[in-house]
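Fold this sequence, please.
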Amino acid sequence: MKGRLKFYFQTTFFMRNRRLESISDNIFLAVYRTSPP
């Protein structure tokens, strides 16, 4: 899970446009829900 969080923060760091931030948030939520606890 740490690797996924690191990837998420790196993605948001490069996606500074607000449109892309909302998309990355949706992707993060989808990955977070499907990832094992």
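Residues 18-34 form the longest helix (17 residues). The helical segments are 2-14, 18-34.
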